[in-house]
Amino acid sequence: MATLRFLLSSSPFLSKPTSLPLPNSSLSLHFPLKPLVFFPKRCQLKRIRGSAVATDSAQPEVELQNDPLQETQKQEQTPTLVLPTNDSSDELLRIRHTCAHVMAMAVQKLYPEAKVTIGPWIDNGFYYDFDMEPLTDKDLKRIKMEMDRIIKRNLPLVREEVSRDEAQRRIMAINEPYKMEILDGIKEDPITIYHIGNEWWDLCAGPHVETTGRINNKAFELESVAGAYWRGDEKNPMLQRIYGTAWEMKNNSKHTFTSKKKLSAGITEEEAGGGLVFWHPKGAIVRHIIEDSWRKTHIEHGYDLLFTPHVAKEDLWKISGHLDFYKENMYDQMEVEDELYQLRPMNCTYHILVYKRKLHSYRDFPIRFAELGTVYRYELSGSLHGLFRVRGFTQDDAHIFCLEDQIKDEIRGVLDLTEEILLQFGFSKYEVNLSTRPEKAVGDDDIWEKATVALKDALDDKGWSYQIDEGGGAFYGPKIDLKIEDALGRKWQCSTIQASLDSSLFSAFLLDSPPIFCTFSFHPFHVDFNLPNRFDITYVDSNTEKRRPIMIHRAVLGSLERFFGVLIEHYAGDFPLWLAPIQARVLPVTNAQLGFCSEVIGKLKANGIRAEVCHGERLPKLIRNAEKQKIPLMAVLGPKEVETQCVTVRSRYGGELGTMKIDEFISSIQQAIKNRTSL
């Protein structure tokens, strides 16, 4: 609804500086999430059709904390904060919309040659697209300072209605070609214009705040720049999109600024290519923990783990239908000894080949294969979006081969597995929808009925409440959509159970093309009546006749990259003890204790605890730095601790925990990790 709302009512207009009656206009901003990983710019891969254009992505950092020496001990966790949304706060929506206009005005003041296009509000802020020379992070600082000046002047926002001819005359006078194209698309008269003082104007339907002074300049931030094609068409000019986030109050904004600040474990490297994620040490540690937990859970649920190649012969993708229907999302083939090989866009065909290695009996079912498989898909540079939209990513992929009468139980098992995995990371609230057959659909009625009933029965058996979206299914099958709610009350679309009844396998996977600015959709899992036919996979039934098994595709987390981005948002960069890349930091009072620090670090690491020593500053600063970097535990070592072979422990959440023996400290950490609690 948020996306639909902004498409219908937010301003898709522009403006440029001058003086009345021809005020000015501008647009800007974009919001890729910044992680413990980095994204390079220039892409060396070729797409099958069209050239690849890459953009930069930024890195997250963690919010700074107060001086730990002045803080009182924290005996309880901070209560959950639910952030306001555009739907719940009309004032917030107005602020974000006005921020887009103020930013556009600031851009055109600083860069008079910039041409403006559109600048809507979005779920966490706003953006604006400009036709101008590429911008850098330094440019964003200049633009933010100019916005602060405009806000401080408390300029009024004035709505004006003009005729179409008058609007056209004004646009021609300021030479804004994109604005003219937008005007041509407006069907209703009169045309509405919003002015910021007497200096800048924009075609706009509103709404806005009364004056620029209503914006709290401590509660908004310019986040990043990305490329975006005009009208989303790669044949059109590449624009500069500036993203920003905005809130009513500073105490709201700090929770979203957190993940954009200092979790920094990576940098942008231009040489490798855009949309390709480099996991640096701290990010790689978190990924390793996620993968270990994922593998353990899947083995417990009866899955066999696989590792398969990243490339395969072209013929495999012809059989699967990818080269016929998904070619534009695949990279160019490579020739190896007169044969063509293809980077894989999906993992399912490989799992089918593993299945076909032997003849199966009906007694073998269900057969469950799971893999953390890296895939590669061509994405236009304008659609790349931090960790949420990349060109190479790792899916938590699984395929279940089963009998027709096992579909319900297997889907129920997938729902149980989904719940168990998401609960491990703190997600316990869901919104579930079951979408049924649309008016135009493929497949026989009885197949649709079986698939729909299987999904419905699994949900009923699970006991989850859900809403039925009559006719909302895809043309190739019914589906279950699941959205998870994070710690701040934001909803993220997670898993989709899709019964794919179309003869084109790939169609179900197009669900992995979400609107970037509303909910971030994870990869689907669905019932497939089609692929077994394409690859002619069979089993021997109780009558010794060959029959076709059912194949269920599913991915709980989607991609590790995208899920990691959601985790950063969920925890605001403050990972719990069991998931934190550094769990304990050892701090000497002076360098005289460094020898004992090494002993303590050695014991911690030998017991599987991620620890490091930090020295070279005065102790108060070492403690303050650890707090800023959100290190869960600190062990302070002074002369007394060396003498007694103890450590003095400080927790981010429990404050001072006192002095304890090293073995006691290790045991306490291990117990907290096991129970996934804090000290």
UniProtKB/TrEMBL annotation:
Family matches, as InterPro entries? aa-tRNA-synt_IIb (IPR002314), aa-tRNA-synth_II (IPR006195), aa-tRNA-synth_II/BPL/LPL (IPR045864), Anticodon-bd (IPR004154), Anticodon-bd_dom_sf (IPR036621), Thr-tRNA-ligase_IIa (IPR002320), Thr/Ala-tRNA-synth_IIc_edit (IPR018163), ThrRS_anticodon (IPR047246)
Q: Name one Pfam family in it.
A: tRNA_SAD
Q: Polar residues bias: where?
A: 67-81
Provide the reaction this enzyme catalyses.
tRNA(Thr) + L-threonine + ATP = L-threonyl-tRNA(Thr) + AMP + diphosphate + H(+)
Identify the EC number(s). Answer: 6.1.1.3
HAMAP family, per the entry: Thr_tRNA_synth
Q: Which family does it belong to?
A: Belongs to the class-II aminoacyl-tRNA synthetase family.
Q: What is this protein called?
A: threonine--tRNA ligase
